[in-house]
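Before a computer can learn anything about folding, someone has to put a protein's shape into writing. The three-dimensional part falls to structure tokens, numbers that each stand for a local backbone shape. The protein below has been through that process, and both of its lines are reproduced in full.
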Amino acid sequence: MNVLITGAHGTVGTAITNHLEHDDRFEFTLLDVAEPDGVYDGEPPGEVVTADVTDYDDIRPHFDGQDAVVHLALIPGTGGAGSREIPWNQAQTDNLEALHNVAKAAEDANVDSFLFASSNHAVGLVEVTNQPEVYHDQGIVAGHDEPHRPDSRYGLTKSYGEDLGRFLAEVHDVSFYGLRIGAVRDPAYDHPFGDAERGVDEGRWERGSEDYDEMVARMKGLWQSRRDIAQLVECCLVDDSVEWDHFYGVSANERRWLDDLEYAKETIGYEPADEGEEWDAPPE
């Protein structure tokens, strides 16, 4: 299977290829706006192409011959930490333009399936209106049938992307998978203490402080390990049953508030290997 990944050199893209690069079922094309510049340990796990997702003509040739596209590319300044506070600006407009370009290229190249990096922010008001209780296993969940409840303009773009995916699926016969990713991190912070430890490293708080503990509690619900996001993507790539659907990108966290793991298991066979409560301290 030929798989094109946009934004391939980023956190999620490298998680996917780190864990699937030796799987003979997949041949990856790694599309990003810049060269990888030391991201990979050794040779990149696929053909590297440089193109700008805001330019349709630039990316279109790289979709020919692909069976699936995994759209991860994000315009800088439109997501990540603090995304709830980001105003609507040209970067957000560019992000929507990129989404349309990738979807149109997939349609025009007759790609079979489209995996879209959606976000927990598409239903993020469940968290916002229930914090901090939502971090402490109080029975507050967004199930698989939770409607869009974006908490930000960033969340709005992700909700729109899922709706665009439904259009692709129902009008253009492209199987669509929206991955509502919780929190995937770079290898150094790939654990539920990761965001709290990064805050210590950046001088924002001290280990053991109230802010530190609250961040650990949040991540023990939202964390998805790098190997688990790779498995979720693998399950979607090999699936042949879904027309359009979405799945929460979380590990098997006991206190998860994004909760459709049973549905994901039954539908695409996703069985995460990691669980936040297995960690009672950061790695040494």
About this structure: The chain has one domain: 2-186+225-274.
